[in-house]
Specification:
It holds the Pfam family NUDIX. Keywords: Cytoplasm, Hydrolase, Mitochondrion, Nucleus. InterPro entries: Nudix_hydrolase (IPR020476), NUDIX_hydrolase-like_dom_sf (IPR015797), Nudix_hydrolase6-like (IPR003293), NUDIX_hydrolase_CS (IPR020084), NUDIX_hydrolase_dom (IPR000086). It is found in: Cytoplasm; Nucleus; Mitochondrion. The protein is built from six helices and 13 strands. By secondary structure, it is an alpha+beta fold. The strands form four sheets. Strands 5, 6, 7, 8, 9, 10 and 11 form a seven-stranded mixed β-sheet that branches. Strands 1-2 form a two-stranded antiparallel ribbon. It has a two-stranded antiparallel ribbon with strand order 3-4.
Length: 247
């Protein structure tokens, strides 16, 4: 592949993994639409090196959302990056959308990637802002979404805390990106319904305490030796954490 030798080992691994994920033989998919599904090679997707030094295959080049292979379909995540000192939240407008509404940055989770890591990575890739995962704020479940292969769509929004503030957004994906006052985002009509609702939730949390809205994470040992899992739930009060005998 042209230019391969000039890329970093990380970039080669990233491209290789994404290429394996998407590289499928063309086939006819049954179901409601019965439309033909095209492979990556057939549609001549061009891998690109982004401004952060990574390599990506832009799924927007596919002819339709339904041309995605089922193996490439994963959960969507967004990261609500809130600066608690200024009361501003990071928002973007997607490029090439019919309605350029404000929303939180986000994207698809990679296979084997934790929820918080996906949110942090996607926020950085879209905006250039680094952040730390704090909690899950909400989960949207949707059925019958076109292009979801008959699967229920899980859409997770996380609360993130910024560790940098300079915006250097990806112009291939975003039309605009800015730090917006949280109260303004909760009132504006230039946003998506889910963003508006989460903005109100964040406003409540910033005033009354995030313990009122956070779904926090704990890592616990699995029943399988050497394995761990992440459990997400509302924070337990201290006097309930080590209770062995409840009345």
């Amino acid at each position: 592949m042209a230019g391969w030798t000039g890329w970093s080992a990380h970039s080669r691994r990233l491209l290789s993994s994404r290429w394996r994920l998407l590289q499928q033989q063309p086939e006819v998919r049954g179901g409601v639409s019965g439309r033909r599904r095209f492979s990556v090679a057939e549609q001549e997707l061009k891998p690109r090196r982004d401004k952060f030094g990574g390599v990506s295959l832009h799924l927007a080049q596919l002819r339709s959302p339904e041309s995605l292979d089922q193996a490439a379909f994963g959960r969507w995540l967004q990261g609500a990056v809130l600066d608690t000192h200024t009361g501003r939240v990071l928002v973007v407008q997607d490029k090439n959308k019919t309605r350029n509404a404000w929303k939180f940055p986000g994207g698809l989770s990679e296979p084997g990637e934790d929820i918080g890591n996906t949110a942090v990575r996607e926020v950085f890739e879209e905006t250039g802002v680094t952040s730390e995962f704090k909690s899950i704020l909400s989960i949207r479940q949707q059925h019958g979404q076109p292009g979801a292969f008959g699967k229920s769509d899980m859409y997770i929004i996380c609360r993130l805390e910024p560790s940098s503030f300079h915006i250097n957004f990806c112009q291939q994906e975003c039309l605009r990106c800015e730090w917006m006052d949280l109260s303004e985002l909760s009132k504006t009509k230039e946003t998506t319904p889910i963003t508006s609702n989460i903005a109100k939730l964040l406003l409540y949390g910033s005033r009354e305490g995030f313990d009122q809205i956070d779904i926090s994470m704990r890592e616990l040992p699995a029943v399988y030796t050497g394995l761990f899992y992440k459990l997400y739930h509302r924070e337990l009060p201290e006097n309930y954490r080590n209770v062995t005998d409840m009345q």
